[in-house]
Write a structure and sequence with these properties.
The complex is a heterotrimer of chains A (303), B (373) and C (385). Chain A is mainly alpha-helical and 303 residues long. Chain A has 13 helices and 2 strands; from the N terminus they run ααααβαβαααααααα. In chain A, α3 runs antiparallel to α9, α7 packs across α9 and α10 packs across α11. The mean pLDDT of chain A is 87. Chain B has 373 residues and is mainly alpha-helical. Chain B is built from 14 helices and no strands. Chain B is globular. The chains are: A mainly alpha (303), B mainly alpha (373), C alpha/beta (385).
Chain lengths: 303, 373, 385
């Protein structure tokens, strides 16, 4: 197996832990709420999934536990930002610190537990496709969930009434309200679903890809997920591509080393953020596809 | 309050308007009025009590007596000389980074980049400190390191400010992204060009020479950086509250349209507020490096920048309140040791306490302009 | 006027009530906690603190420390043990040491390599407290209340290398490590030399993660090594669950380090090196209590070894994958090391062919600790400073 293949296999598996949360963050941001607490929701999801897996012996049920754990923290963010009108960034950071503390305290007893992680599933004929097969179709369940989520979310957001409502809420909540809908409820649902997906992303780390639980094990993936959404300027397909590219970049170092290439990883690590910064400037300058209007207000009109 | 209109910042009406009318009625209703008048105060005390109760519950679930935990939190921090010194030392970078949030906030800007500005300040100080530290007299190398640290922090905050004024890119987002870039730059430096050859493989810079380190205050664990930090905090207070510049920032933050009509140079004010903020955080990074850490290492900022962001919000961007909040958070962070040593609980439990303290006023934020958009 | 006065009175009353309330709350809180906070300095008991960089249940380095600290608490009289884990290698450790002293600690074990500068500085500013650093950091003069200790870790690690070399079919061994510090370079070299001694074709592929415990990076490193064809994995960082889990999924073998984690993967576990710190801790504490610490072997850089029969790192139990013949071969080699043999006896060559140890020469511990190259047979480079 050559280096490129190895990098891609690891990149897809690890990248899934970015793809799913970033699709969640996309949903939330399109409804007008940014969730910096994505990192916290991922942590909660990682521990929730691990704890449920320890209790039930099934990593699949564990994923559901992780999703719920993430959603609980999302509910808090939704309540604070939508119903208490709290500052979105402050609330997000609070959710992150709360999750750091809660998972640290409750997770201590799980560091020593052993689970059977999600098995690797080969998709019949597809996994036999030369080169691409083993990279894309010899992975765990959540990787496939990631594949399915992208078209699903594109469809929901752009082809259904719910999606239209959600995007309108993100642009002009007051118009949605005039039309007789409840923008608060729509936003709260979007934030919670986003956090739920972050929880699933956390589960991919703890009961999927790595198979252990450790304090602070998401190590910044949640913030990367937020960056990816900005990088992609709120387009699902770009979110997916961006997330996998970030995933591959993060897993490239080990593979390069085993192939005898020693590099200083850290300038490479900074690249995704730099690219995102440049993308933001270009997007803002061109006046092209900008942030959802309500989100813009939340992020720019502080007064 | 309309469900939606809240998104539009200026549409909020104070809740208490109605309550004043019943002042001359019966005793029962006057009690009611008194309660309403002080509703906010009662609610805020209530919300703190409630969040402490939540914390107590978590502690109880983990098998410790909540009252003893609270007492250890208090005792192990404020009732011990050595610990008070450590609280002060930690509060130096946190309060300066918190002021770095408060200054731009006055002009309506959101600086989430304290973490990165602290790091850049430490990098700038290390670079200069290692170059001149061994040869220059202490005060000179401190001054040069301060200039370098402040400048590095200012640049790191200035870039997002320029991006905001030139293209409209949200500084909340760009400052956040800049944090990660700063951390990667530091790791790059200490994993290669700046790695201490005598550290046997550990990724860390060479330690500052003794004369470049901030000297100790009266033989305590404190160092002279504490004095500099106090001076900087007072200067910031003066700038915001007494100077023409501070007033102009407030006008811009209050109503940009009016500020424009009054002929204020808006972009220049926005950029300068970020530059001053970044310089404060950079100096915080420099003081922490030269006084406490002495060399660059991974994790040197230990999320101080984010804690500072929360401190500034808790203090509603008022300079002296912000500093108090920074001290409070510093003490909370330190109490993790006492909790761990006495009860065997995971030290990260103090993150819960920190979050709950910030959440308590957020629950009331509907009535508080400072907490809302 | 009157109204104004009543108003003032009310304000004052309110202030008194508030201040009084807060004060009484603090006093109550403080009084119910006194029993826990200051019981330590009483009577003839000595409080000993242990500080760990990672989780005390990490199936690795920190768990080994924690277990030994509890053994000390159980087996020594008049000793009270307090522990703190997850303390990062920055000024936080100073704060933790200060908190321990506030609790009455007279002896502190700072058990992570990167604690060294903080531990040394703390010892200098707290002359009544004895500070021990775990990591065998070579340095010049020691204050009278400071010491550093370690073991010739590479000895049992080389035996693990023999087990690995004997079972590999691909002749590729994977080694995931944290930092290229001297003890780790020695371990990797010894692992490869041990493997070569039973299988000359065995090569060790190395990846560094730059973190004492980052399961995500470990998983990536392990995956890369397994994809490269490695069928035995070993490692040197603090936690080992992620590497073992990765090996288990790929049906590869594992040589453990720090702690007996055979329960994580009973069928893949070959053997490993595990810390048995308790005897050393007890010996150090007894020396301090007897008042003979100053100038003793512990008031310096103490390194235990097989030859001196005091190596704190010992061979772990064998897994079933190691054949009886190989077990006796490994045990025979262990006996030789105990009799004074060395895995680093020359000739030994660096990766680039340069002579590292001349033929027939047995290097001293100090020389071994100065090795700055991987030996021939190791694939991978040392990140350069």
């Amino acid at each position: 197996m050559n280096g490129i293949e190895q990098t891609l296999i690891g990149g897809i598996a690890g990248g899934t832990a970015i793809v799913i949360p970033s699709l969640g963050e996309l949903t939330s941001e399109l409804a007008g709420i940014v969730n910096l607490g994505t990192e916290g929701c991922m942590l909660a999801g990682a521990l929730g999934a691990y704890a449920v897996t320890v209790a039930t012996g099934s990593a699949e049920i564990g994923v559901a536990g992780g999703a719920i754990a993430g959603a609980v923290f999302g509910l808090l963010h939704a309540y604070l930002t939508i119903y208490r009108k709290a500052d979105q960034l402050t609330s997000g950071l609070v959710v992150w610190f709360l999750a750091l503390g809660v998972t640290g305290v409750l997770g201590t007893s799980y560091v020593n537990d052993v689970i059977t992680p999600l098995p690797v599933i080969s998709i019949g004929g597809l996994s036999k496709v030369p080169w691409l097969g083993p990279i894309l179709f010899h992975q765990d369940l959540l990787v496939y969930v990631g594949y399915v989520l992208v078209p699903l979310i594109i469809f929901i957001l752009h082809r259904t009434r719910i999606g239209l409502l959600l995007r309108s809420t993100g642009e002009r909540p007051e118009v949605v309200s005039v039309a007789g809908n409840r923008p608060n409820l729509i936003q709260a649902t979007a934030v919670t679903i986003g956090a739920l997906l972050a929880g699933v992303g956390g589960a991919q780390l703890s009961v999927g890809y790595v198979g252990t639980w450790f304090d602070d094990m998401t190590s910044g993936y949640g913030f990367v997920a937020v960056a990816v959404v900005l990088f992609a300027s709120w387009k699902p397909l770009r979110v997916m591509v961006g997330a996998y590219i970030f995933g591959v970049a993060l897993s490239a170092e080990s593979v390069l080393q085993t192939n005898g290439i020693a590099i200083n990883q850290y300038l490479l690590d900074a690249l995704p953020y730099l690219v995102t910064l440049i993308a933001l400037v270009i997007v803002s300058r061109k006046g092209g596809r900008k942030a959802p209007e309500a989100l813009n207000r939340a992020l720019i009109d502080v007064t | 309050m309309g469900k939606v209109s809240l998104k539009l910042g200026n549409s909020q009406k104070p809740l208490e308007v109605v309550s004043n009318t019943g002042a001359t009625a019966t005793l029962a209703s006057s009690i009611k009025v008194a309660f309403k008048r002080h509703k906010l105060a009662y609610l805020s005390v209530g919300s703190y009590v409630a969040s402490m109760a939540v914390f107590g519950l978590i502690v109880f679930v983990k098998g410790a007596n909540p009252l003893s935990v609270f007492s250890v939190v208090v005792q192990s921090t404020f009732f011990n000389g050595g610990s008070v010194e450590q609280i002060i030392l930690r509060a130096v970078p946190i309060s300066l980074a918190a002021l770095a949030v408060a200054v731009p906030a006055r002009a309506g800007l959101v600086n989430v980049g304290g973490e990165g500005q602290l790091i850049m300040g430490a990098i700038g100080a290390t670079g200069v400190g290692l170059t001149v530290g061994a040869s220059a007299p202490s005060p000179l190398s401190w001054a040069l390191m301060g200039v370098a640290g402040g400048l590095a922090g200012a640049i790191w905050a200035g870039i997002p400010a320029l991006m905001r004024t030139a293209t409209g890119a949200s500084e909340a987002v760009t400052t956040l992204l800049m944090n990660f870039v700063a951390n990667d730059i530091m790791l790059y430096l200490i994993y290669q060009p700046w790695r201490d050859r005598y550290s046997s493989g550990q990724p860390q810079s060479q330690p500052l020479s003794h004369s470049a380190q901030l000297s100790s205050l009266f033989g305590s664990q404190l160092n002279i950086g504490v004095v500099f930090a106090v001076a900087l905090a007072v200067a910031t207070w003066w700038l915001l509250k007494k100077s023409h510049w501070g007033f102009a920032l407030k006008v811009v933050g209050g109503n940009q349209e009016a500020a424009k009509r009054a002929g204020l140079p808006i972009n220049r004010l926005l950029i300068s507020s970020m530059l001053v903020g970044g310089a404060l955080a950079g100096l915080g990074g420099m003081l922490n490096l030269a006084g406490v850490e002495v060399q660059l290492r991974p994790g040197i900022t230990a999320t101080f920048g984010y804690i500072a962001f929360l401190a500034s919000w808790l203090g509603r961007h008022e300079p002296y309140k912000v500093v108090i909040a920074a001290f409070l958070f510093s003490a909370i962070a330190l109490s993790s040791n006492g909790i761990q040593l006495n009860f065997g609980l995971n030290g990260s439990i103090v993150d819960i306490l920190l979050a709950l303290i910030v959440i308590a006023p957020l629950f009331l934020s509907k009535n508080r302009k400072a907490m809302t958009k | 006027m009157l109204r104004k006065f009543t108003f003032l009175k009310r304000r004052l009353l309110k202030l008194f009530v508030t201040v009084g309330g807060v004060a009484s709350l603090l006093v109550t809180l403080a009084s119910c906690g006194t029993s826990t906070a200051s019981a330590s300095s009483s009577g003839g008991t000595t409080t000993v603190g242990f500080i760990m960089v990672g989780s005390r249940s990490d199936y690795g380095y920190n768990q080994a420390v924690y277990v030994a600290s509890q053994t000390v608490a159980k087996e020594m009289n008049n000793i009270k043990v307090i522990t703190a884990d997850n303390i990062p290698e920055n000024s936080s450790v100073t704060q933790t040491m200060q908190a321990m002293v506030n609790q009455g600690a007279k002896i502190i074990f700072a058990t992570s390599y990167g604690y060294f500068p903080y531990a040394l500085k703390f010892a200098k500013s707290h002359p009544t407290v004895t500070v021990l650093h775990q990591g065998g950091y070579l340095t010049g003069k020691f204050p009278a209340n400071f010491g550093t200790y370690w073991g010739e870790a590479f000895e049992p690690v080389s035996l693990g290398g023999m087990a690995a070399g004997s079972v590999t079919k691909t002749n590729k061994l994977g080694f995931v490590y944290a930092f290229p510090i001297p003890q780790t370079i020695d371990n990797i070299d010894a692992f490869e030399l041990g493997a070569q001694s039973v299988n000359p074709k065995a090569k060790t592929y190395v990846v560094n993660t730059s973190n004492w415990c980052d399961p995500l990076k470990q998983k990536e490193a392990a995956a890369a090594l397994l994809a490269q064809g490695a069928d035995v994995l070993s490692q040197h960082q603090d936690c080992q669950a992620a590497v073992i889990e990765a090996a288990k999924q790929a049906h590869a073998y594992v040589v453990g380090y720090h702690y007996d984690a055979s329960s994580l993967d009973p069928s893949g576990w070959l053997t490993g090196s595990v810390w048995n710190w308790a005897p050393l801790y007890k010996s150090i504490i007894s020396t301090i209590l007897s008042g003979h610490f100053k100038g003793s072997k512990y008031n310096a850089n103490f390194v235990g070894s097989f030859a001196a029969h005091n190596n704190p790192l010992v061979l772990a139990p064998f897994g079933k994958a190691v054949s009886p013949a190989m077990r006796s071969k490994i045990l025979a080699e262990e006996a030789k090391l105990k009799a004074g043999a060395s895995i680093f006896k020359g000739p030994i060559y660096c990766q680039n062919g340069q002579l590292l140890v001349p033929p027939g020469v047995t290097p001293t511990y100090a020389q071994i600790n100065n090795f700055s190259c991987f030996v021939k047979g190791v694939v991978g480079t040392i990140p350069q400073g």
